[in-house]
Amino acid sequence: MNDRIKQLAEQSGLLGPTSRIGNSHEATEKFAELIVRECAKIAIADYDKEQDFSGNPHMDIQGAYRSAKVDVAMAIKETFGVEL
User: Rounded to whole angstroms, what are the CA distances from 61 to 52, 57, 67?
Assistant: First the structure.
């Protein structure tokens, strides 16, 4: 299991000494919420940096947008240990 996923599972109560076996539905929902929040943080962090496409005359706005979406998807997958 990816370290970050393990941390989120422990934080939600799915794993570890404070796991909520009797209330796994609540812990599962919390785990999913933490993953979504982590993905949102990744998306915001990746787009806070400026991208310079001035050196590439073939990179239009639409191409830059598609490229940025792929970059964020790859960052999210890498964070959770999903094959790229």
Answer: 11, 11, 10
